[in-house]
Each structure stands twice: as C-alpha cells, then as structure tokens.
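Chapter summary example.
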Amino acid sequence: TAGMLCAGQIVDLLVKRGATIISSRKWPVCAGLLGGALFTIPAAYTPGAVMAVIYISLAMFFINLASAASWTMISVVVPKRQVGSLGSIMNFGGYFAGSFAPIVTGFMVERTGSYVNALLAAAVISIVAALAFFVLVRDDMKGQETSKVMA
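The structure predicted for these 151 residues follows.
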C-alpha cells in the first residue's frame, strides 16, 4: 500500500516540476520495476529469514509503486471512452501471466530444491519489463487523443 500511495505523490511531483503527463508515469514504472529487481536479487541469497522478509518487503514496495503508476498511465494514453477496455486488457494479461507464476515457481523449486532460481527469474522478468516500458512508452503518442490534464 505504501508503494501505491507513494506512486501518486511521485507522479504529481513530477508533473508539478514540468514532466510531461506520460513521462511522469513512465519513470516511476521503470524505477519501481528496477527497484523490485534490485531487492529481489539479495532476497534470493539471504540466509536469514529476517533479512529475506525485509528485502521482499522492499521489493514489493517498488513493484506496487510501478503497478500504481502504470494504472495511472491508462487514463492519459487513451481516449476516455477506451479506458475501461484497456484496463480490462491489462488485467487479463496480468492475471493470465500471474496464473503461471506458481506453476513455474513450483517446477523450479522441485527441480532445484531452492527458491533462488525462481526469485532470480522474477528479478530478470522485472528488469525486462522495465526496459520494455522504457523503450516502448513514448511521449509523442502520435495520433492519440491523450488527456492533457492529470487524471
């Protein structure tokens, strides 16, 4: 929850400091995904439960920051009449991919006897997602009727 609340504050602060509506959402998403990966990697190798919980909690903070910022992106990149459609497509994709996470994690743990590879795979996926968001989301959404006001 703290990550989600901070995302809104960061987005608002970036807009107030002159960032475009799209970049004010793009950068928190990228930073959140990279932060999630940054704290997932040490969690994979931490021998103590206390430090593992701290690292995973910090990773979740950043992942939730990215998630909230990406949701605010929807309201500004598509016309108002399409927000619900894009939101439902995003939900479907997230839930569909998320349904495979326990299966893949279980397979990895069964094969290796450890959660290390599963956590590292999650970190790599987060880094790839940040790179994709960085490359694919542009400020010059030509041909789009994007909102000019904060949503």
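To summarize the output: Residues 51 and 109 are 21 Å apart (CA to CA).
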